[in-house]
């Protein structure tokens, strides 16, 4: 047992050299970082992390030096570049992985996905205590005939969690660019090998602008605000879905979801929320802490990014995420901030009339200086009342 643990510790600092049909790369793992070195040939046109092709953080972009590209990913701050972390609750072993996209001119501009992974053993695993056993008792005699039985030991695979966003019924691959208010659906699911064995539950999720602003949307397995982010639903326990509409923060064009997912044997225990049902991310009730699940064997930390674009850059207002907005079931999860123009003294008001799965109707009302010539319904009502009173007073 001690030899196995020492071997696992030594593997952490070893080079892992992998060669595919088109790309050669090496992965070096340390306790706090993952270094990926990729050989850049003439056919390679671009190298980037999955979902982060145009992400502005330099730490998430490769460093090119001649014919070699290197990526140094932090394992202490896994959310910086979207590294997935898997913690084995039984052994304490932590696995980190990410996907790197390689674009080449080979075979008509193809894309190749390279999975990179590091396995880090816990520090306590290297401390092994040897106990001295007593000698065999006096008169001990081994039987001459031994009954040998066979034992079969099966090991369950380590779960691989995947996060996807579906837009208009189509699963989006690569970097996701959307407009505010776009109906989206987040999907969290297991790979085909792990799906029959494990179940999922989203215990915590937070949305952030990748800078300083953040908002908790799922706490203790229950949704904090279903108008902002709907409940996670599941049929078989290993495929979770939740609908939401794209929103943005005032000072960033990128939005990041940070989540913690519990992986349990067979199926996770649902959390009883305010609607009285067992959910995997339903409306929140007063629960101080989530009860422990005896079937929980893994805890996975995930993250997902999308970029907000605008079709109408000429608009003076852009729909922005406002955590303190008033919750109204008839309105979408976004609000408008007024932006004044000192030159034209013109204001635009952006109201959403109705949102369907496929269509998003928007009314833009122009309030200019000549708007005073239009009589409002209240003014017309007062005018009618005055005329009626005057008619009654006539002799």
What is the secondary structure topology, with strand pairs?
Elements: H1 2-12, E1 15-19, E2 24-29, E3 33-39, E4 44-49, E5 63-65, E6 68-74, E7 84-88, E8 94-104, E9 111-120, E10 161-167, E11 170-171, E12 177-178, E13 183-190, E14 198-208, E15 214-219, E16 222-223, E17 233-234, E18 239-245, E19 254-265, E20 271-272, E21 278-279, E22 282-283, E23 296-308, E24 347-355, E25 360-367, H2 377-393
Parallel strand pairs: 12-23, 16-22
Antiparallel strand pairs: 1-2, 2-3, 3-6, 4-8, 5-6, 7-8, 7-23, 8-9, 10-11, 10-13, 13-18, 14-15, 14-19, 15-16, 17-18, 19-23, 20-21, 24-25
Characterization of this structure:
There is one protein chain. The chain has 395 residues and is mainly β. The protein is built from 2 helices and 25 strands. Strands 4, 7, 8, 9, 12, 14, 15, 16, 19, 22 and 23 form an 11-stranded mixed sheet that branches. A hairpin with a 6-residue loop joins β8 and β9 (111-120).
Uncertain parts: 1-15, 281-288, 312-373
CATH topology label of the domain at 161-308 = Immunoglobulin-like
SS content category: mainly beta
Number of helical stretches of at least 4 residues? 2
Mind summarizing the main beta sheet? 11 strands, mixed
Q: Give the name of the CATH architecture of the domain at 161-308.
A: Sandwich
Cα gyration radius (Å): 29 Å
Mean pLDDT: 74
Choose one word for the global shape: extended
